[in-house]
């Protein structure tokens, strides 16, 4: 009797296990298909949510001026964001396109002329002689120079094409994200209430504090890091255009990338300073150097003004997030990675701060028992 009962129990257990495995397998298949369907929309929606959190205070102020018309306020903020984004991007892209078109046409006509190096280049310690020789070769015999450095030129062209393609894709994603952020801001109260409910169900009562901290972190990073990087790159980029630096658009884009990654813009500006010094007179060089240095040092003034209070993100966190995000999702990941990693850092710090309180509560319960 006991043996039959045991066999019956084993059979029930096996049946339940098989049934559970089938259900779990079907659920995994459903989740995989769902992920594949929504995957193209994850980054635009996530970025739209981040932008909405950052711009929500602006929408709230505009809503008051428009006498409570929140939908109109959110739409105007989104349109303004798209225009602000497209204006410098179109200028930079136009500069890059014109430069490539001009170089291609000149190469086809055989009429391209490069400025010859001056003795200033040859007098540079260590690298001056070799640099003068290579520069002079390109200036006097372009065909031979291209033939000698063809692998390097191909690699550079491939890299530039990849950067331009990624920049265009990022622009489209940004525009879509700004449109999505308008929808989020127009319905912010309902969305906020829903998210807070989900957060509390997931992480407990402390989730309310966490959501407030996440919003503060997003605004701090976007305004204090990405916003400052954008302004700084525009100041430096303007000097490239005013002084007629070749490839000004591409150089401006590189400066923006470096500034977001919290790396010194001098990595791009220094070679340009050297180029201006080698090809222009003393007055032009002095004016350019002053302008570029003011742009390079402007973050020291802008960050204290724009960085949100109470949120202090270490530079390595921004650097790792920006570079990792760029490797994962291209140029848009440069922005997204810095924000997401900063949020995780602040959550971790907040968790550490709450640990002693939790330990103290547990100690009190143990003492009472």
UniProtKB/TrEMBL annotation:
Organism: Vibrio olivae
Transmembrane segments: 12-35, 41-59, 71-90, 160-186, 221-245, 251-277, 284-302, 317-345
PANTHER family referenced in this protein's UniProt entry, alphabetically: TRANSMEMBRANE PROTEIN, TRANSPORT PROTEIN YDIK-RELATED
Identification of the protein by name: AI-2E family transporter
Key words of the record: Cell membrane, Membrane, Transmembrane, Transmembrane helix, Transport
Membrane topology: Multi-pass membrane protein
Principal subcellular localisation of the protein: membrane
Superkingdom of the source species: Bacteria
Subcellular location: Cell membrane
Keyword Transmembrane helix listed: yes
Similarity remark: Belongs to the autoinducer-2 exporter (AI-2E) (TC 2.A.86) family.
Pfam family, one: AI-2E_transport
InterPro entries, A to Z: AI-2E-like
């Amino acid at each position: 009797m006991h043996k039959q009962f045991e066999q019956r129990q084993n059979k029930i257990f096996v049946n339940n296990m098989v049934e559970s495995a089938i259900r779990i397998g079907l659920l995994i298949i459903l989740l995989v298909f769902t992920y594949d369907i929504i995957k193209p929309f994850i980054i635009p929606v996530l970025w739209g949510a981040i932008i909405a959190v950052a711009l929500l205070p602006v929408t709230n102020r505009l809503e008051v001026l428009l006498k409570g018309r929140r939908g109109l306020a959110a739409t105007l903020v989104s349109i303004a964001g798209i225009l602000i984004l497209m204006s410098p991007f179109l200028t930079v892209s136009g500069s890059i396109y014109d430069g490539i078109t001009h170089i291609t046409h000149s190469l086809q006509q055989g009429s391209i002329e490069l400025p010859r190096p001056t003795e200033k280049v040859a007098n540079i310690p260590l690298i001056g002689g070799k640099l003068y020789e290579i520069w002079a070769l390109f200036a006097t015999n372009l065909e031979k120079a291209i033939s000698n450095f063809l692998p390097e030129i191909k690699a550079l062209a491939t890299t530039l094409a990849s950067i331009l393609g990624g920049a265009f894709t990022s622009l489209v994603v940004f525009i879509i994200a700004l449109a999505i952020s308008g929808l989020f801001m127009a319905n912010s109260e309902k969305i906020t209430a829903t998210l807070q409910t989900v957060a509390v169900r997931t992480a407990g009562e402390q989730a309310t504090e966490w959501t407030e901290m996440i919003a503060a972190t997003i605004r701090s990073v976007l305004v204090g890091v990405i916003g400052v990087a954008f302004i700084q790159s525009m100041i430096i980029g303007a000097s490239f255009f005013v002084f007629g630096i070749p490839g000004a658009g591409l150089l401006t884009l590189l400066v923006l990338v470096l500034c977001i990654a919290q790396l010194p813009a001098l990595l791009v500006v220094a070679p340009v300073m050297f180029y201006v010094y080698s090809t222009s007179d003393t007055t032009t060089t002095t004016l350019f150097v002053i302008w570029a240095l003011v742009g390079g040092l402007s973050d020291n003034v802008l960050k204290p003004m724009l960085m949100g209070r109470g949120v202090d993100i270490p530079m390595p966190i921004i650097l790792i997030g920006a570079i990792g995000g760029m490797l994962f999702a291209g140029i848009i990941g440069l922005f997204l990675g810095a924000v997401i990693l900063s949020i995780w850092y602040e959550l971790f710090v907040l968790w550490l701060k709450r640990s002693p309180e939790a330990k103290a509560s547990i100690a009190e319960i143990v003492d009472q028992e």
